[in-house]
């Protein structure tokens, strides 16, 4: 089974905020395949379990708020016995320009509390992740900035990043070597 995780905060208050770009990616993909998320209280997450090209795939949006995202992912991985090599995480990154993508096979949390929690609970940083640039605004307090919505111009770049992320998901599901996916998308954006 493949586990495709979007990080973000639950609730309409946070819908389409910068910090929720991971949710935006999985929401878009699940909508495209005409599926929907359902809250699973056992896992503290909204999940969509489906089959794509004969592969069982679970899309996950933790409902624990960003800083505790790892709890939901850990429970799901343990319950379904999913290995680290079969997960990919989509997450925002203030250190990248808006809409830029950086794919990594592993790495640190870079100050991102959702990744920090995930790494801590999984006892590993050896999982694939796609960092989606949301830029930074030094004139705003960081928590206010990441919880703000994108401007119209920024949404153009974010929409392109989400489209590329859909392609990344397809290739991940189809077992394309992640090094090949990284080569394509790290140089393209």
Automatic annotation (TrEMBL):
InterPro entries: Pept_tRNA_hydro, Pept_tRNA_hydro_CS, Pept_tRNA_hydro_sf. GO terms for biological process: protein quality control for misfolded or incompletely synthesized proteins; rescue of stalled ribosome. It comes from Mariniplasma anaerobium. TRNA binds at residues 14, 65, 67, 113. Its EC number is 3.1.1.29. It catalyses: an N-acyl-L-alpha-aminoacyl-tRNA + H2O = an N-acyl-L-amino acid + a tRNA + H(+). It is found in: Cytoplasm. This is Peptidyl-tRNA hydrolase. Monomer. It is an enzyme of class 3 (hydrolase). The keyword Nuclease does not apply. Pfam families: Pept_tRNA_hydro. The keyword Magnesium does not apply. The record marks 92 as: Stabilizes the basic form of H active site to accept a proton. Belongs to the PTH family. One of its GO terms (molecular function) is tRNA binding. The gene is pth.
